[in-house]
Amino acid sequence: MLKLKVEGMTCGHCAQTVTKAVEAVPAVERAVVDLKAGEVAVEGNADEATVRRAIEDAGYDVRDAA
């Protein structure tokens, strides 16, 4: 499972936007956003760079999860 910090999410709409963007990436089985922690957990075999790019294209900054 891939976990990434997503900066800039402030509400449920933001979390929904990130979820949809990540789940549109090929080989992503499921994306679970934890708004409070500012993280997204990605299940599947998707390329990390592609997932990062999808989140950034949606308007958010991505960092490695601690």
UniProtKB/TrEMBL annotation:
Q: Which residues form the HMA domain?
A: 1-63
> Which species?
Skermanella stibiiresistens SB22
GO MF assignments: metal ion binding
Keyword match Metal-binding: yes
Question: Which keywords, in A-to-Z order, does the entry hold?
Answer: Metal-binding
> How is this protein named in the record?
Heavy metal transporter
Asked if Metal-binding is a keyword of the record, the answer is yes
Matching InterPro entries = Heavy-metal-associated_CS (IPR017969), HMA_dom (IPR006121), HMA_dom_sf (IPR036163)
**CDD domains named among the record's database cross-references:** HMA
User: Which lineage do the record's taxonomy fields give for this organism?
Assistant: Bacteria, Pseudomonadati, Pseudomonadota, Alphaproteobacteria, Rhodospirillales
